[in-house]
Write a structure and sequence with these properties.
Elements lengths: L2 H19 L2 H7 L9 E2 L8 E5 L1 H4 L6 E9 L2 E4 L6 H4 L10 E4 L10 E10 L13 E5 L10 E2 L12 E6 L14 E6 L3 H7 L13 E4 L16 E4 L2 E8 L10 E5 H8 L14
Parallel strand pairs: 8-13
Antiparallel strand pairs: 1-10, 2-3, 2-5, 3-4, 4-7, 5-6, 6-7, 9-10, 9-12, 11-14, 12-13, 13-14
The chain binds arginine.
């Protein structure tokens, strides 16, 4: 099924309608403060590895072209979701989007804070499966290095950060209501990693995807609560200072029984192991 791609597409495109109908300030104040219910605004310095993926040609200037999230894992390497780079989202093969950029060190998309860096190369995981959403990651190589310190380490397989109950922070510029309210400021939400059997029961296989414990993890609250949402895809889920997930999919946002599903970063590490596109050791920095 291509539902997840359709949903990723609906988010950014629906935005144009929302923005023309309601001034940004009004939509921001009407929304609960968060990446969906229970989240909160943060300054990018609190999660400096969080970047926005931007194409103004494709998505317009109203939110600086933001259409997905990403995460810096080295000064020239950004991870995002494979589905963010689908033709249906960016309108063309990703290596041909002329103005594909990452926006780094910027809290307010409409400010000139931080920097915009061109993407030099896009590699979509060849094993990404649109039916299940398994393997939902892509590796972007930047034309210029990001600032030192704007990088997060990837948690290796077996790291305690992956254990159920682990507290994690997800950050992005995605929908803060589940109803298409896209903020200009970065938001974050606290979520807990759930056990694989819980995730598998929540998503045995349906139109939105199927849970695969080797390539995914899920997080949130089964009673409903803080969650990522459309527009956050590709962005970071960080626990104990290490990257464990990339926002990937879910049924709705923050709904009871439907936790958020993330690309499992230890599987990204495994896939990249030894390849030229593989992660470099993240620099220590301020
Ligand atoms: N697929 C969405 C995107 O493209 C992310 C959805 C995450 N959903 C969730 N309930 N955690 O932005």
């Amino acid at each position: 099924m291509r539902r997840s791609i359709a949903r990723a597409l609906i988010g950014p495109l629906a935005l144009a309608a929302v923005v023309t109908a309601i001034p940004l300030a009004a939509s921001a104040s009407a929304a609960p403060a968060g990446v969906v219910v229970g989240g909160f605004p943060i300054d990018v310095s609190q999660a400096p590895w969080t970047v926005a993926l931007s194409s103004r040609d494709r998505f317009g200037r109203t939110r600086a072209g933001q259409f997905c999230g990403g995460v810096a894992v080295s000064r020239t390497t950004v991870l995002t979701a494979a589905h963010c780079m689908a033709d249906e989202v960016v309108g063309t093969p990703p290596n041909r989007v002329g103005d594909l950029k990452v926006i780094a060190s910027r809290t307010d998309l409409l400010s000139t804070e931080g920097e915009e860096i061109a993407v030099r190369d896009v590699r979509v995981n060849p094993r990404y499966d649109v039916e299940t959403n398994s393997g939902d990651f892509a590796v972007l190589t930047l034309a210029e290095p990001l600032p030192r310190g704007a990088v997060v380490a990837m948690a290796p397989k077996g790291d305690a950060a992956y254990e159920p109950g682990s507290q994690a922070l997800v950050s992005g510029w995605g929908d803060v209501t589940g109803g298409g309210a896209y903020p200009r400021h970065l938001h974050a939400a606290r979520v807990r990693v759930l056990a694989d059997d819980v995730c598998a029961r929540a998503y045995p296989g349906g139109p939105d995807g199927a849970y695969r414990a080797d390539t995914m993890l899920c997080a949130g609250d089964l009673a409903g609560g803080p969650d990522a949402c459309q527009g956050d895809s590709g962005g970071p889920l960080v626990a104990s200072g290490r990257l464990i997930g990339l926002v990937s999919w879910g049924t709705g946002c923050g709904r009871p029984g439907d936790p958020g599903v993330y690309t499992r970063v230890s599987d990204v590490l495994r896939s990249l192991g030894g390849s030229a596109a593989g992660p470099q050791r993240p620099e220590k920095g301020s």
